[in-house]
Amino acid sequence: MRAFVGLALLALAALFVGLDRPDWMDEREAHDGAVAQRLMQLHEAITPTLDGTPRFEKPLLGYTLELAGLKLTPSSPTASRALRAAMAVLLAALTVAIGRRRMGARAGWMAGAVLATSLALPLAARTDGTQLVATGLAWFGWAILAGARLEPQRPRHLTLAYGALALAFLLAGPVPALWPLVAVELGGGEIPRVRLHRTAGLLLIFGLALPWYGAMVERHGAPFALALPAFPYGGGIGVPWYTHPARLLGFLVVGFYPWSTMLPVAALYRWTTGAMASASMVATRQLLVALATALATMLFAPALPLPAVLPALPAAALLVASLLEGVFADQTLALRAIGQSAWLAAGGGTVAAILLEIVSRRLGIGASALRLLAAFTLVSAWGPALAGFLGRSRAQPALFAAQVALGTLLVLGRVLPALEGYVSAGPVAAAMNGVTSRATPLLLVEPPPASLRLGLGRHFAVPAALTAAMRALQGDGGWAYVAYPPRRESEVARAASPAPLEILLRTPALVLARVRP
After folding, report:
1. Residue 418 region by backbone torsions, left for phi larger than 0, else alpha for psi between -120 and 50, else beta
2. pTM, whole model, 2 decimals?
3. With the C-alpha atoms ordered 438, 444, 450, 452, is the resulting torsion angle positive or negative?
């Protein structure tokens, strides 16, 4: 068990590795940073905007971590990433606290270790600070309210619970704030039911949220109101309703990997072992309802990134921890379950390694780093199965944890920096700032990625007629500067003809060039 928990601590420490590289990543991180930067420039206190367009994706306070990060490191994502990593550590610590109260000290530590070594946590720590904070606040509120139903004789801190949910409402929207209340009601508890002062709690939640939400409804009306159920992932392109069940299952399997291979058996194991004690049965039912309710929140948003599954993972981690406790106690059912899960993880890891190898063959820059990740994925995925084959069942939890704990170190320290040209336009922005003054505009063939917008800090244009724009928007020394995807290089060269293009920087996603018309 010590090796298992030690690897979890390593996984949390790995979140602070490589904070300065790559530059702002275009997958959500740079977009949120660009909106936060615009809020600072405009001194806006109500409506998040980008290019003059209101953004109905999440509440204004949902950009708090990005705003704080830009204050600390204005030209780098380092501070913002450090804050998100700290939120991930706090979420794991909260899971430990809930597990210790409900299932004992050992199970609590294992629950925190399971969450810390789940795939979605390091991904959220790099790209989705809002979801991290909202999940922590929601589970803090749920723990207090569900605990009051489970153990009515203990002192209750209902004001803290409703205050946390009110803050989640302000940071992430109504669905992330209200699902814990639904889960507590459906989860059951002692009879007669204790008073949770629901009316007063709802008044507190909606009362604190009313000033900003009321101002936004007054400003923007129906478009804002219709976007509310999708917060904090509003504004995305919708997906067909019939894909929702597959999306829920897929996100849970991938986001909770490698522990998702044992989650169904863990839930059944927890239910059967809890049947001998009424209090344990109620606690199990509360966890299962919380898991289902948190997963159901994904039905409200049209388009979701993988960290959207994060609200369900503390419940899943607590259920898996109960199974792992049986493994360390040498219980036959638990040993058999983790053995079968090890073979499932081996199969999944093999498929992932093959896909990574296929992708690496199509890359130029960073291919070797991706092949290294593929080799690690294959070897680490087969580790638990080999331990089970050798009869070392107690080593299996640590080998499951090693897949994400060591993989996070590899990805953040080696793979992402090597793939910077694919995930960020920061190098292009740095090159443009290095060779020109701020007064020189940049012409863009396509709308700029968020990371380019965030790093430029200058005027840019996406003209319909590129040739005319090159003549009209010249900068230092009479040069016109243009950025374009590599696939459109011939089009840009024709627009510049007969003058030749001078390539300043070529990355896999974007090329920076200049021409003297």
Report:
1. alpha
2. 0.94
3. negative
